[in-house]
Amino acid sequence: MRFRTISGMLILLALATCAAAQDKISGTVKCAKPDQFQKIDIGDKPGHAYAINHFKCMRTKPMEIAGIQTHEDVGTEFDEITSTGARGHGILIGTMSNGDKFTVSTQGKDTYKDGIPGSGSSQGTWSFTNGTGKLKGITGKGTYNGKPDSQGNMVFDVEGEYQLPK
């Protein structure tokens, strides 16, 4: 019985040392107002609507993944809007400085200041769903927190971790 316990512990230790390490990442991204926006009022109460939008973002403090810096992002998001904020789900496609791409799934919550969209804060989570080139097989996740700047763009601080296959 003791042999099985020691063997089991050795196998677990070997698996733990073989597991790929998670690399921490952080950066800042500035997203412009949507270049496409469609909103449908539901009609059950004031301010309740569904919306879909498309936007572009530039990395003001790039993240580094596998020795390559992030460059720009394009996102599409679906939101349920109320008079006090919105809950949304989105897909973001990021382009690295070398042309490789990654896809991220997001979900989050916006809080409006004085009932004005884009005036409050935004926070949520994200996770990698795929990548190309050096980022093929990427996994990982993280969080984001955003606030509007003086021009009405949303500025997000992003942090998390990633793992690439060996």
Task: Assign the CATH class.
Answer: Mainly Beta
**Low-confidence parts:** 1-19
CATH topology label: AOC barrel-like
Total beta strand runs:
10
What would you call the structural class?
A: mainly beta
User: Biggest β-sheet: count, sense, barrel?
Assistant: 8 strands, antiparallel, barrel
In words, what does this structure look like?
The chain has 166 residues and is mostly beta strands. The protein has a single domain (23-163), classed as SO1590-like (AOC barrel-like, Beta Barrel), CATH 2.40.350. Helix content is 10%, strand content 63%. The chain has one helix at residues 2-18; strands at residues 23-31, 36-41, 49-61, 64-65, 68-81, 85-96, 101-113, 116-131, 139-148, 154-163. Strands 1-3-5-6-7-8-9-10 form an eight-stranded antiparallel beta barrel. The longest helix is centred in the N-terminal third of the chain and has 17 residues, at 2-18. The protein is elongated. Residues 1-19 have low confidence and may be disordered.
A few lines on this structure:
This protein is mainly beta and 166 residues long.
Observed structural traits:
166 residues, mainly beta, AOC barrel-like, eight-stranded antiparallel barrel, 1 helix, 10% helix
How would the blueprint of this fold be written?
Blueprint (H helix, E strand, L loop, with lengths): L1 H17 L4 E9 L4 E6 L7 E13 L2 E2 L2 E14 L3 E12 L4 E13 L2 E16 L7 E10 L5 E10 L3
Antiparallel strand pairs: 1-3, 1-10, 2-3, 3-5, 4-5, 5-6, 6-7, 7-8, 8-9, 9-10
